[in-house]
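We now fix the convention by which a protein and its fold are recorded. Think of the row as the fold of the chain written in a discrete alphabet. Here is one such record, which you should read through line by line.
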Amino acid sequence: MNERVGIASRPSPAQGLLDRYYPEENGQRSRDTTAPFYQWILSGIDAPHAVVLNIGAGPTPTASKRRLRGRFQRLVGVDPDPVVLTNDDLDEAHIAEGSHLPFPDEHFDAVYSDWTVEHVADPRTFFGEASRVLKPGGSFWFRTPNLYHYVTLAAVATPHSFHTSVVNRARGYPKGSHEPWPTFYRANTRSKLRRVLTEAGFAELEIRMAESYPTYLMFHRLAFRLGMVYERLVNRWEALSGFRHYMLVRATRPAGSGRSQRPA
């Protein structure tokens, strides 16, 4: 269920502005959230001894910074789309049936999910299953859009057919890229996340709000400049953090918990 993120090799009208105002350094573009998100995951896991689950693993990641195979004892991936079976970044791949995760209770040392929560129709079951398969004391990291951002609000207001016909082109993806998966945004605010994660048995919640460069506005120079103004404003003042595009989340299952978190 992962989205492909970043700018593709095909030039776009705003490529010059992107390179000027958000330059790359050591393979990391300014304001990009991908490297910080994966560094956060790696910093919180006893990597050489950990068995880790990637929920919504999708196809093989295109960006090298999102490839974690070999960093853990074992990396397992699960996705309802059979494309996960082609993912070369996994030691083991599974197809999910419905919302249930095909793993026993308290099986994984850590769980992560990138660009998946927005595609979940039943967040209560999704987070309950993540908690169930996670060992006590383990953490679940995920990255997902914030509902209160202009890109997300536009996505909510437009039909899925618009996404499949326009969005990949607007973001500069090459022809043949995987079509966007349907989105629901049913847990994509800080308040909703805190409530559903707490109900699922998680604690010690940390939500980091981040605004990246205006990826979705690469189709036009003026649109990109307007996106830059927005990015500068919401990143400058913490009072506006609730309008940043991305939520990077870490939710930890209490170390003393031992009962299954399977939803009733």
